[in-house]
Write a structure and sequence with these properties.
By secondary structure, the protein is mainly alpha-helical. It is built from 10 helices and no strands.
Length: about 260
């Protein structure tokens, strides 16, 4: 049933203690993701050889998938988040607005972390050195501006998975009946972005594994931070949420 007025509480709101920025669960996911990345690194050369083979590169369907994935990873994931946020505010759809804002936040935070990691690892992209899957020189990514030595992690993949994790988590909290399909759609496009980066020889398999880990973990952390701090300053400013998660304007709760 639609609710309106200043007394309407955000759907799913509960009294909880503010969660830390990084939780034990986040650390577990990072450890698991790091393990997957290490295993993927062992397969980097074989996967690149297969994906870059003539048969795969000449496949029209895979080429189209790669084009979609590349565009989504940059810039559409960020623009999509901004569009959801603005559209939700204008249309007074709080779930839509909050989901978009969380995506923008997650992409921004994970982007900064990813940029630091890129510079720190200084890993050569496969198109630069396709015979050595671990051409790493710590700090090299900071000193060279052409991006050829900023392979780990994949920035496009990080953004795509940050969007997927943030939007799905926010929808699960506010409109759980829609979470399954939102998750399937958003994570499928994120997977397409991961494939696209390997298809275009911009990244190794382990680069996209690391990007997916960083993006998804950041997306979950951002939504959890807000969920345990209803009515925080960011939400009051950008979502119009009151100090207890109340809306400052009339709202309709059903997912648009």
């Amino acid at each position: 049933m639609p609710l309106s007025g200043a007394s309407a509480q955000a759907p799913g709101a509960v009294d909880v203690a503010p969660a830390p920025i990084v939780t034990r669960r986040d650390l577990v996911w990072l450890v698991v993701g790091s393990g997957v990345t290490i295993l993927a690194q062992r397969a980097d050369l074989d996967v690149r050889r297969q994906v870059r083979s003539a048969g795969t590169q000449d496949n029209g369907g895979l080429d189209a998938l790669a084009r979609v994935g590349n565009v989504w990873g940059q810039p559409l994931a960020l623009l999509g988040g901004m569009g959801l946020w603005v559209g939700g505010r204008v249309g007074q759809r709080p779930t839509l607005a909050a989901s978009g804002l969380r995506a923008v936040e997650a992409i921004g935070v994970s982007g900064v972390l990813g940029k630091v990691a890129k510079g720190a690892f200084g890993r050569a992209r496969p198109r630069v050195n396709g015979t050595d899957a671990w051409d790493v020189d710590p700090g090299r990514g900071f000193s060279l501006s052409d991006g050829d030595y900023e392979s780990l992690p994949s920035g496009h993949t990080t953004a795509a998975f940050a969007f997927a994790a943030a939007v799905t988590s926010e929808v699960r909290h506010r409109a759980p009946q829609h979470a399954r399909w939102v998750g399937i759609a958003s994570f499928s496009v994120a997977a397409a972005t991961a494939y696209a980066r390997v298809h275009d020889d911009a990244h190794w398999l382990s680069d996209v594994a690391a990007g997916a880990t960083l993006g998804a973990t950041t997306g979950w952390a951002v939504t959890r931070w807000h969920r345990t701090r209803p009515g925080n300053r960011v939400d009051r400013l950008l979502l119009g949420a009151g100090p207890e998660g109340a809306a400052l304007i009339g709202v309709s709760l059903p997912w648009p």
